[in-house]
Structure formats: C-alpha cells, structure tokens
Amino acid sequence: MSTKEYPTTDRNNPNLPWVEKYRPKQLDELISHKDIISTIDKFVKEDRLPHLLFYGPPGTGKTSTILAVAKQIYSPKEFNSMVLELNASDDRGIGIVRGQILSFASTRTIFKSGYKIVILDEADAMTRDAQNALRRVIEKFTENTRFCIICNYLSKIIPALQSRCTRFRFGPLGTDQMVPRLQHVIQQEQCNVTEDGMKALVTLANGDMRKALNILQSTHMAHDVVNEDNVYTCVGHPLRRDIENIINWVLNENFTSAYNNILEMKTEKGLALQDILTEVHTYVHRLDLPINVKIHLLDKMAEVEHRLASGTNEKIQLSSLIAAFQVARDLIVQET
C-alpha cells in the first residue's frame, strides 16, 4: 500500500477540521465493518472491482472507504484524472449525468490501463430522471469505469440502479469501535477528557464517528476540560439530571409550576423542546409505570413530536406534553 500523503488533506494543518485531519487514508486504517473492508480489499487485489452501492446512516465510513480504495489503486498524480467525485453540493440533474459524468466515463485512459472511478455521494438526493439516465451510462461504460453510489436511504435509489451494483450496508459504529479512535485523536491533540466526557461523546454521537469528532473538537476549543457537563452544554442538549428534574416536575408539581420551571430551564440553557422530548421518551421507557399509562404517554409524546416537526409553537406543545403527564398521574392514582 502506498504511504504517500495526498495533497487534499495535510495532517499538519492546524486549521483543518479533525474530521478531515483524521480521515482514514488507507483501507487498513478504517476502524469498522471489517467484513466489508476485507471483501472490497479482495476485489481490488484481484482487479475485479464491481459497481458499488454503500448505504447506511451518516458518519459510518462510507465515503472514507471508497476514497481509501481510490487512493490504494491510484498514485497521487493519477488521482484527479482517474476519480470523479460528485456530492449533493454539486448539480447532479439529468444534464450533469448526460454531460459531465458521460464525458468522464466515455474518455479512455491513454497512459494507464484499468478503470476510472465515479463516486456519487449522497445519491438519494438525485432525481428519478437523473437516476434513470445514469442506468444507461453505467451499462455502456462498464469496461473502463466503475461507479460507487453512496446514500443514507436505500429506498430512495431506484431498483434498476440497485440491481446493477454490489450492495454493502454500513451500520452505526459500536462503542468499542469509536472509543479507541477517539482516544487516538485525544492523544494527538492533547485534550483533557474525563471518563464521563468520553461517555457523553459516544452517547450523543449515536454511532456517528463524524459527529463524535465534531463535538469533541468544539468542546475542546470552548472549554479547558471535556467533561459531561461541558459536552452537553456545547451541543445544547439537556443533561441527564435536567431530564430527571423535568420528569419530577411534570409528575409531582401542579401544571403551572411545572410549566414555569421547564420554560425557565429551556430559556436559561437554550434547550429545544425536540431534544427534551427525545430524552424524556427514552426515560419513560425505563420508568416502572402501569402498561396503559405508559401507552397513553408514548402515544401523546408521538403526537407532540409530529406537531413539532410541522413547525408549531413550542410553548403550546410544551403545555400539551405537561398535560399528558398530568393525565397519566391521575390514571396512576385511579389504579391504586
């Protein structure tokens, strides 16, 4: 494997976001999905790379994997002429498929035998017309071009494109995979991270390595110590003790005090009702409540969440959330 550095990401550049600074450069640097990596590595070594379709949640290594493959196949000089990368920020309508992609795929490589690679990142944002046009391009130029389609939602890719590619699903990363990588970055950047800070990073990231690194970098720049409180404050997410207080207020206080207390906390800490609702929902699952009360609460919270997604007034929805808990409290009293 080549150990040359590619000019696009200089690791010594202090202004570079850590996400790019520590992006894996080679296949053996990738920290997860070993079965997928070994399969693709075998394809590359045997020179039998098919068209690829990577799908899964953000920050799980889809783009890093194909870039590492491309850097393994081509030298730094060849890279720009042999790889075409287009993502959602580029115009990828039917005109681009018939123009830029078609002309790149159709031109032969004079000095190097082998194939070019076209990387279509965030392909679920492409129109159906563009995907249909791409179908013919993929078929026609298979001899000298390989396509790698990357998306978050497989259902947004038309079946005709799916059938032309070898599919790989990139699942969210596990804690055991994320922690060693985060520790490597912490060591390199000399961050002061506490144990609860590390736990908070992994919890908030939800298996998204990019998100974990972004939170780590912003917390490190804003605070001297990366601990649980600072991490949660930096992303504007409610702390565990805030959620415990909220549950205590809505179940034990009267409506007015609960409403005023939560509103004051929201204003003081800059919390969004959506984030509070997500955490309260998780907390309710852990509470020992009669099943009919729990069903009532979950149903009401789902309604509030749906209304919030439609852009309704947060204060009115907060009242609705508190009301659901007050009704639940009365139901518990009736049962006992």
UniProtKB/TrEMBL annotation:
Organism: Magallana gigas (Pacific oyster)
Upper taxonomic lineage: Eukaryota, Metazoa, Spiralia, Lophotrochozoa, Mollusca
CDD domains per the UniProt record, alphabetical: AAA (cd00009), HLD_clamp_RFC (cd18140)
A single GO molecular function term of this UniProt record: ATP hydrolysis activity
One family name in Pfam for this protein: AAA
A Gene Ontology biological process term: DNA-templated DNA replication
Keyword terms of this UniProt record: ATP-binding, DNA replication, Nucleotide-binding, Nucleus
Matches recorded under InterPro entries: AAA+_ATPase, ATPase_AAA_core, DNA_pol3_clamp-load_cplx_C, DNA_Rep/Repair_Clamp_Loader, P-loop_NTPase, Rep_factorC_C, RFC_lid
Protein name: Activator 1 subunit 5
Subcellular localization(s) per the UniProt record: Nucleus
Main location: nucleus
GO cellular component, one term: DNA replication factor C complex
Family according to the record: Belongs to the activator 1 small subunits family.
